[in-house]
Design a protein that fits this description.
The chain has nine helices and no strands. It is mainly alpha-helical.
Length: about 180
C-alpha cells in the first residue's frame, strides 16, 4: 500500500513538474524584469534585431508573461534571425541544406515577418502599439533590403512580392539567386 502511494505521488509530482518549473522561471524573470527591460528597450531602440533575439533566448524571456506586451517585437526579431540563418545556409558552401530547401524555409520566415504587419483584431489591443508597429515595419524594410540585395529584386519586384503565393516567391528568389 505504501509502495502504491509512493508511485502515485511520483506520478502526480511528474504531472505538475512542468507547471512548477514554469512558475519558478517566471518568478525569477519577474524579479529581474527591470534589468531585462532596460536591455530590451536599448536593443529595440538600436534596432538590433539579432541582438534582441539572442538576448531573449539566452535569458529565457521570449514566452514570459512578464514581457507579453513585447511578444510581437520578439517574434519579429526571432524571424529576422531565422532569415539571416537561412541566408547563411544559402551562401555557405558547407551547408547541410540545399538552396531549394533553404529558400523554402526562408520564404516561410519572410511570410511570418510580413504577417506581423497585419495582425488579427484580437491581437491589436493586446500586443500592438506604435512602438510595435514601428519595429515590425523596420524589420520588414530590412527584410526587403536583404531580398533586393541578395536576390537581385527591384523595387517593382518587391511591390509585387508580397502579393505572390509561396511557390511563386520561392521561384522568384531562386531565379534571382541564379542570376549571379
Amino acid at each position: 500500500a505504501i509502495l502504491i502511494a509512493l508511485i502515485a505521488l511520483t506520478f502526480i509530482g511528474m504531472a505538475f513538474s512542468y507547471e512548477i518549473e514554469d512558475a519558478r522561471e517566471e518568478r525569477l524573470i519577474s524579479g529581474q524584469s527591470n534589468r531585462y527591460l532596460t536591455e530590451i528597450n536599448a536593443l529595440i531602440e538600436d534596432r538590433d534585431y539579432l541582438g534582441l533575439s539572442y538576448y531573449c533566448r539566452i535569458k529565457g524571456i521570449r514566452y514570459s508573461k512578464t514581457f507579453e506586451q513585447y511578444s510581437r517585437i520578439f517574434d519579429a526579431a526571432r524571424e529576422y534571425e531565422q532569415l539571416m540563418q537561412y541566408m547563411d545556409y544559402i551562401f555557405n558552401e558547407d551547408s547541410y541544406m540545399s538552396n531549394e530547401d533553404t529558400i523554402e524555409y526562408l520564404v516561410q520566415s519572410i511570410e511570418r515577418i510580413y504577417s506581423l504587419n497585419n495582425p488579427e483584431e484580437y491581437e491589436i489591443e493586446k500586443y500592438y502599439n506604435d512602438t510595435v508597429y514601428s519595429y515590425i515595419a523596420d524589420v520588414t524594410e530590412q527584410t526587403e533590403a536583404v531580398l533586393k540585395g541578395y536576390f537581385n529584386l527591384s523595387d517593382e519586384d518587391m511591390k509585387e512580392f508580397w502579393k505572390l503565393n509561396k511557390a511563386r516567391k520561392q521561384v522568384l528568389l531562386e531565379e534571382g539567386l541564379n542570376e549571379d
